[in-house]
Structures are given as structure tokens and as C-alpha cells.
Amino acid sequence: KKKLQKLKEKYDRRGIVYISRIPPHLKPQKLRQMLEQHGEIGRLYLAPEDPGLRRKRKQQGGNSGKNFTEGWVEFEDKQKAKEVAAMLNGQQMGGKRRSAYYYDLWCMKYLPKFKWDHLTEEINYQKAVREQRLAAEVSAAKRERDFYLSRVDKAKAVTAMMERKRK
Description:
By secondary structure, the chain is α+β, with helices and mostly antiparallel strands. The chain has helices at about 1-15, 30-35, 50-60, 80-90, 115-165; strands at about 15-20, 40-50, 70-75, 110. Strands 2-3-1-4 form a four-stranded antiparallel beta sheet, with helices on one face.
């Protein structure tokens, strides 16, 4: 019971920071490396860009790598998460001058009373909605196809009757 209580306290101490813009080509490992300088990081999730946008970019000769649009970072200490979000928001990402992210700005916000479970819940909900929408589209397409085929059969039967009448 004490172990469970300790785990719950540790979980309650965690804080989530939302990053609204991820620069192109910034990977989760690099983001973790950049933020670990400021505090201990637990989990990190970056939302991948829309597959349609990626396909279009590749077709137009752009970079074929995976880009991300937004991200959530879980700090082990919520106080540290608040400090990091307040300190870095609007600041230059920096690093070496040659770095691809040198001129990009941090766009961060601390999310009070937000836990990692809320994020996974939302992701699962979006996935279920997408699957439902896809299933509805497939069933509608099947209905249309069946209706069309029944009309074709009916038309064939009518033409056959007219042919028999003519004879």
C-alpha cells in the first residue's frame, strides 16, 4: 500500500509542457537532449504531420523525412516544468550557430492539471473516431454499389421483357 502511495505521489508531481511548434527535421531524441539540460524528463510525444502533407511534400521534391507538428513533454517535477516553460517560451532554441534550429523559437506552455493519461486518452479517442469514419465511408460505398448493381439487374430484366414482347 505504501509503494502504491509513493507511486501516486510521484505521478502527481509530474508536469506536462505543450510545444505548439516543432521545427522541421527535429526528432524526439534531439528534443529530449535539448530539454534534459533544464530538468529530468519522463515521457515525450511528438504528433506526426498529416500523411497527405508529407506525401505532397515528397512529390514536390522536398525532404522525404518525417516531420512533427506539435509535442508534449512530461517533466518529473511540475515546478521544473513550469520554470522551463516560462523561461524558454519565445526564446531562441540556440545551440551552435550551424545548428538547423538555431534561429527557431520555443513555443511552450505549461498545462496545469493535465496528466499523461489525458493525452493518451485523447489520442485513442481520435484514432477510434477516424476508424469509425472510415468504416462508415466503406459501408456507404457498399450500399451505393449494391443499389447500382440492383438497378443494372432491373434494367436488364426490363429490356429482356421488352425484347420478348417485341417478338
